[in-house]
Amino acid sequence: MASTGVPEDLRIALERLAAVERLLVALDFDGVVAPIVERAEQARPLPETATAVAELAGLAGTWTAYVSGRSLASLVEVATPDARTLLIGSHGAEVRLGGEEHPVVLDHDQQEALHALHIAFAEVASQAPGTWVEEKPAGRVLHTRQADAEVAEAAVGAARERLASRRDVFLKTGKQVLEGSVVHATKGEGISFLRQVTEADALLFAGDDVTDEDGFLALDDGDVGIKVGDGETAAGFRVADPRNIAEAMALLVSLRAELGAQRTP
Ligand SMILES: O=P(O)(O)OC[C@H]1O[C@H](O[C@H]2O[C@H](CO)[C@@H](O)[C@H](O)[C@H]2O)[C@H](O)[C@@H](O)[C@@H]1O
């Protein structure tokens, strides 16, 4: 089967993956399912990817998941996933399985740390035109995509400096964002959790950002990791942009549907 945007080595890996008994397909959201845009609330899935994910979720022995740095609420709003798609939010700190949400619960010290984080980011953003703060249950995100490069760099530096003495705020760098969280969680933990609950024989994970590297490091032999875009990666495969993920997902749907049809008596 020819598919122009799917490299040959990935196509072969997808053929192998399509044949496993229990398969988990886990996708990062921003930069993988949805192209990167100026404002977080404007991001939307590529329709072809959303369709392929829904089709995969309807196949026997197949689970789908979005594994995102977004809060669950924000992920649900922009991705509008159906109930079958498993959700990991806040880089692993929040979970939704079926209709059941497992929100993050903060103790008193974490609430105090979140307040300090909010003040630090909000004060920096108020002085740095083009930056803004996104709120999450266990963290805050300083967005700099719409700021001039020098303003963005200075804002991130100032925010880091203000939080340097806090051992209870964990900082992560993402695509033109600085994220702070009062809960230590990684996408690797999220992916290992999903592997456990689905009892998957193999899984696919695709990601584009530095924080997705924890996810790639949680993959085993027989799994497929796909890095979207440039940058160092532990993933075994690479594609250029989210449209290639749409193509890869469509290919996986047809391969798995075909094999499923052959298995059905
Ligand atoms: O793990 P992800 O699903 O990829 O989420 C990572 C962060 O994505 C969002 O920010 C990124 O996408 C925005 C919309 O395209 C873009 O404007 C921003 O510059 C990107 O960093 C989201 O807002 C964050 O909360 C997520 O952690």
TrEMBL record:
InterPro entries per record: HAD-like_sf (IPR036412), HAD_sf (IPR023214), OTSB-like (IPR044651), Trehalose_PPase (IPR003337)
Catalytic reactions on record: alpha,alpha-trehalose 6-phosphate + H2O = alpha,alpha-trehalose + phosphate
Cofactor(s) for this UniProt protein: Mg(2+)
UniProt cross-references to SUPFAM superfamilies, sorted A to Z: HAD-like
NCBIfam families referenced in this protein's UniProt entry, alphabetically: T6PP
Role noted for this protein: Removes the phosphate from trehalose 6-phosphate to produce free trehalose.
Family in the record: Belongs to the trehalose phosphatase family.
Name recorded for this polypeptide: Trehalose 6-phosphate phosphatase
Species name: Sinomonas terricola
Gene (UniProt): otsB
